[in-house]
Amino acid sequence: MKPIPEPARPRGTDCPKAFVGLLLAGLMLSFPGCGGETASGDATTASPVAVSLPPAPAPGPPSGRARRSPTADELAHFKEVVERGVNFLNGGEFGKAAGELSVAVALQPENAVVLRYLGSAYVRDNQLESARRVLQAAINLAPTDPAAHYELAQVALAAGDLDGAAAESRRTVELDPGNRRAQELVGIVQYRQGEPEQAVATLEPLVVDGGRRIDSSYTLGLCYQDLERHEESRDVLRKVVQRNPLYVQAWFSLGQVLAGLGDERGAAEANEKFLSLGGKVPIAQAEDDEDPAEKSAPPAPE
Fold first, then answer.
1. Helix H segments across 125-229?
2. Cα distances (angstroms) measured from residue 28 to each of 79, 233, 237
3. Domain 228-302 has CATH 1.25.40
4. What CATH homologous superfamily does 6-58+70-204 map to?
């Protein structure tokens, strides 16, 4: 069984709090050549939206015509467009966010920060190819921005590109060693690559210390299950459903573990909860190589 990566969730209400904190903490917009901010993915609180007026763009290359400095009205318009996009993104209206941020990118096509936020909107709207293209453009302009690499890692994971997800998540950790969410993403990718032992080594200290991603705890439970550490799997999965009682996949997996431990009553209760939340296949009929929970409704927000 494979965990469902967060970026694949189509519902606008399922925007992780840590992502919102990263999005709103110190949003500093820059014109071409001015760089952008670095924000760690383990932010847990959201700051008020504050879009600063960027400086004028740097002059163009000597061989071409120098760029005209933006007027005050143009700067104000740019700020308004970006603020609307950020507000839509924060509010879970990802399609509208992408529309506004696309306008901002058209106004400033070499603004790596705005490109990254447009990529984030595409990720949350499940437009993976558009997200990949935009985020790669942002990285080309600002190759040391860990947030852009983190978003691109999520795109790769959602698209099934495990090698790409591994490379980008590790690159994020290299650039931002304190980014716990990126560290957890490394472990999720390791599990998806069929390396449960390595995934446990990565995820266990993070989850025990309070994982940022609920998928990290879920994945750790699956790792324990694969390694036949059933009691530990049961304990972790119970914590997952306590943290988010609407996490469909976790109820399915918990039912499997409880059935394997001979807890028929607990397995039946988990199965009933799984079905009540939209699961389509009873646990007893599930195929070993496919998790039917992956086809059901995504987890609700915590």
1. 128-141, 146-158, 162-175, 180-192, 196-208, 214-226
2. 11, 42, 39
3. yes
4. Tetratricopeptide repeat domain (1.25.40.10)
Question: Does the CA dihedral 207-210-212-217 come out positive or negative?
Answer: positive
Crossing angle of the two packed helices 264-276 and 248-260, in degrees rounded to 10: 160
In this chain, the answer to whether the domains covering 6-58+70-204 and 228-302 adopt an identical fold is: yes
For every one of its 302 residues, what pLDDT tens digit does the chain have, with 9 covering 90 and above? 443 333 333 333 333 333 323 333 333 333 222 233 322 333 322 333 334 334 344 444 444 556 678 889 999 999 999 999 999 999 999 999 999 999 999 999 999 999 999 999 999 999 999 999 999 999 999 999 999 999 999 999 999 999 999 999 999 999 999 999 999 999 999 999 999 999 999 999 999 876 678 999 999 999 999 999 999 999 999 999 999 999 999 999 999 999 999 999 999 999 999 999 998 654 444 333 334 333 333 343 33
> For the whole model, what pTM was predicted?
0.70
